[in-house]
Amino acid sequence: MDKTLFAMQQHYIIKKQQNFFISHGANINEKDKDGKTALHIAAEKDHKETAELLNSHGANINEKDNNGQTALRYATTLYNKETAELLISHGANINEKDKDGKTALHIAAEKDHKETAELLNSHGANINEKDNNGQTALRYATTLYNKETAELLISHGANINDKDKDWKTVLHHAALINSKEIVNLLILHGANINEKDQDGKTALHYAAYYNSKETAELLISYGANINEKDKDGQTALRYATTLYNKETAELLISHGANINEKDKDGKTALHIAAEKDHKETAELLNSHGANINEKDNNGQTALRYATTLYNKETAELLISHGA
Q: pLDDT tens digit string along 230-253?
């Protein structure tokens, strides 16, 4: 038998069986061990006609499985556009959340499904909806380098300066993963470059912490406050020097970072370099005019930290520079 004819015959038989079971009282919303109904399966497998049949016989279109996922969620996650459109036309709740508080739009952004995101937005998806961690769809798109989807979300009104539960904006996250393109996109669309999270850190702090030199340079070019302090009184330079991020530290210094800036304990970057035995960092700081005899709140100098902690080479360096 011709394969196409066989497939058509099988399709006819299956459809006839489905109608038979439904007409004889089959529970259309019966769930399996995973909490899925027949409609979940139809959406997952992209069986549009089956979904249509089930809906016409009263299937609960917004029924959730054990993970809190609806049929629409399956259709959108798996690029099943036609089935998704069908479900939406029958009243599927676009903004329904799963157990993690994610909507279909969160997943579209996470998976970089630009067309799905467009479909959801065109039908009224809440573009700034947050999941249980306070993350929006834009946050997922930017964190995962999904630039085109991020641009789409921004064009539909995504709040660029929205904060998650740690008060971080998408710019903070883009900076900490060194996504220069995304950082540029966000700034061009109005991201607050000096916005602080709950620890008082700006995007520049994160770029320095993670040694994201190119991103740091971009942030500085757009006017990031190079000497901004976090809640512990630490600047971007302090993070760069503490973590051996020499190139980023040199960049910050070349753009006017204050080498002798103190944290809440009165320590400068040189105190930390001596304490951590970062000889090269201490050399870098000294070569750019660090105050070698500066004291912290306890009256300790960098040399005191180096000697107390048996950091002989760093101590010798400090002495050679006039400590």
A: 999 999 999 999 888 889 999 999
| pLDDT one-digit tens code per residue, 13-56 | 344 444 534 553 556 777 889 888 888 888 888 888 888 888 87
Amino acid 164 reads D
Structure tokens at 181: 């393109």
Residue 135 three-state SS? coil
pTM score? 0.82
Instruction: Please give the CATH number for the structural domain made up of 259-323.
Output: 1.25.40.20
Which of 176, 226, 235 lies closest to 200 in space, CA to CA? 235
C-alpha distance across the termini of the chain, in Å = 94
Q: Give the C-alpha separation, 178 to 180, whole Å.
A: 6
- Is domain 163-235+250-258 given the CATH code 1.10.10.10 in the classification? no
Contact 296, 262 (CB under 8 A): yes
